[in-house]
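Q: Is it fine to ask for two folds in a single conversation?
A: Yes, each is treated on its own. Send the first.
Q: Here.
A: Result:
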Amino acid sequence: MLLTIGTTHEPATDLGYLLHKNPGRVHVAELGFGTAHMFYPHAAESRCQAVLMLEVDPVGLIRGQGGRGRSGTASRFALGSYVNDRPYAASSFLSVALGRMLGTALTGRSKERPELAATPIHLEIGLPVLPCRGGAGLLSRLFGPLGYRVEATALPLDRHFPDWGDSEYLSVTLTVTARLAEVLQQVCVLLPVLDDDKHYWTGADEVAKLLRRGGQWLAAHPERELIARRYLRHDRQLTREALARLVADEGLDPDRADTEQDAAEQAAEQPLGLQDQRIAAVTGAIAASGARRVLDLGCGSGQLMAELLKNPAISQVTGMDVACHALARAGRRLHLDTRSPRELDRVQLLHGSLTYRDDRLRGYDAAVLMEVIEHVDPPRLAALEHAVFGWARPATIVVTTPNAEYNARFAGLAPGARRHHDHRFEWTRPQFGQWCAAVAGRHGYQAELSGIGPADPELGCPTQLGVFRECR
């Protein structure tokens, strides 16, 4: 069975540092059920691909199994231990091989490239033979909410007899912009979920492994119950324990953390009602542009999306955020579980990073970056600029960001303090103006600057607004 990992992030050969496997060598690991090999069929600066090939020993599968079936479970038919798909279909065997061969990569550590290990990059995962007990629809339900673009082709039962129809196996390509460690963890968890089987005994330690590899993404996943149930081999007690711990962790971690992080900013801005004024200004700018398909980049909990959807002239609103728990909150705010199919056609949530090219963001009329750019590390602003202004390239782009000069008017802020501790910077009006002019010039836009909120004669408005319009 095969799994491929590719990237076009330059220099692409840095993939070797992230995987902790030298592209110039073939790496081998002996496992109890076979041998895992890792090698690089293509390793260049522009593109690099690693292949994990697992050779399963058919005799090893049944040695000491005591009559167990195709993957260590009860045999489904008399010769199930001898006639099965385990040597070639991606399954829990492959998950174990990933853990053994790429254990350090799964932790997200890289001694040589620590910054790259913490950075979302463009990745392509290939699974030539993937059992999917639930079809391509389930595949999309599992990987889609995590930001993957899913391409799946059903494999025929027998290519010599096409009339027999398709099998339950798919040839799959998954494309995503994310941290490599997160992708490996998600694949390790979801392979046995799609296969709906495991080759080894499941106990309490598997709950811990699920929670460790699930991290925040599993708590916010709309299919978390199905994932937990299948991963734990339909053991009701273990499934209940896993879900209870997921819910507890979700309540204690991301949402409360967001509330605590936002408290200082809200305390400073609330007397001015700045959030409501920002939303009104942005929705006004979008309405004036005549846009019908709108992107809310860094959508957070979906406040702006909810207002945009009130405009019947807008046919689709798509929100993107890098935080899965924020997308879950947005889904609740937008009542995605109770909207009619027609209403759901107008709204979409995507998981992804704004600092990498993403084909899903192309073809929109307008994009909004409302209080987003100040959360990006300054060295990554150029990547955001290229991804939004250069690649997605909507006709109108609306940007808001704090005016650092106005901070002196906020009684709750210490001198020199920023409004939010996650802000990487806060610009003065001249600094924002210079950035807007440079970005507009590089990408063929015209930028119009103004302010939001009460204007101070010396310090300007508390929020800066830039509306970029593509030059015709």
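Q: Second one now.
A: Result:
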Amino acid sequence: MISSPGIGSGLDVQSIVRQLMSLERRPLQAMQTSLSTLDTQLSAYGRFRSALSTFQSALSDLKSIDAFQIYSATSTDADAITAVANSSAAVGSLDVQVNRLAQNHKQGSLAQPDTGTTAIGGAGDQMTITVDGNPVTFDVGGMTLSQIRDAINDGDAGVTATIVSETATSHRLVLTSIESGAAQAMDLAFTGSLGTELGMTTINNVATLAELDSEIIVDNVYTITRGSNSINDAIGGLTLNLKAPTASAETLTIARDTEEVTASVQSFVDAYNELRTTMKALGDKELKSDSTLRSIDSSLRSVLNTVPTGLTGSFNYLSQIGVTIQRDGTMQLDSSDLEDAIASDFTGLAEVFAHDNQGYLFRLDARISTILQADGLIDGREDGINANKKTLNSRIENLEYRLSLVETRYLSQFNSLDTMLSQLQSTSAFLTQQLSVLNQQQQR
């Protein structure tokens, strides 16, 4: 075999083989196109899975009855008292007078001439700070005011220490309980002369430590004291936030938060429409004519088209509470109709969305969970695509090997043809030369 095909005869062997192999590779190209299509479908199902998960997350705000127990609490003086209502609150109003706010217990020392030179107490003197029954002892005898402060702050006694400098020669150690209320008040004990020299005393403006607790009067009858200005265990479903004492009672009004419910329903509608948009885009392109996509679409539509049974309220259809399905399959919310439904039968509205086993959102959530679960519809479809990819990759590998053999065979055959043509050309040239000589001899 010659090393440069076509040199002997002028036959373009490489070009001929290249063109023949282009024809031979058409089945391979078709397989590679199919493989690319499968990769595209697999990616599309990844996007579809993500869209379903996002939609399911959007259902969380409304898929349970408790999610509809949304209340707002307003105050006649938000600078003095506010409240936050949870799902166990009750619609109504109550009067609250704030007599005093909870304070953090503070103790201050006698004035000291400096902060970093004068030793206070003697070596070995100790200070014990007890907060909420937990004593912590500090060996601070003979230390300066700054050193005592730093030692306390480095410990874990439930207080913080700071120095207040009134003048250049008057400095006081101030200890403050980290948490407010009488139960968190500090008790100080000393050994040696340390306690006398510091002379710590309560500096809060209270007659007794009990006055460190906040105090409110509810409905002019019930007196409530707590160690904090945030009270969540006095009135069911409410957390009271005390900000300032009041001269008289302020009114807290608890009502259903219509705006929040409407916003949650609108979020559901928007999420459903986003899912529909994704499904339509995939159905028009990557998953066109895909039976699994159509099956899931039909499954979700069937939930919305199946009227719940056994509800105890006034409503059975989404359209009755302002949510309608448009011609293109998307949803639309009429806020006015929704607000009317909230006002007329709130419990019935909540059941339409979230009744166990029957609520539209409850059933949608369950259906999507089934679709997304392991060995569900999407898992099954992805497994099928991956199986097809594996088969195609195997066929492509085998075909590529066979094509390499075909190309070798073509090169061998055409190289042989090239050699033969070269030899024929040489023979032809020799015969032509001999005939020419013979002709010349005859002419003489």
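Q: Anything structural to flag on that second result?
A: Two points. The longest strand covers residues 92-100. The CA atoms of residues 109 and 431 lie 131 Å apart.
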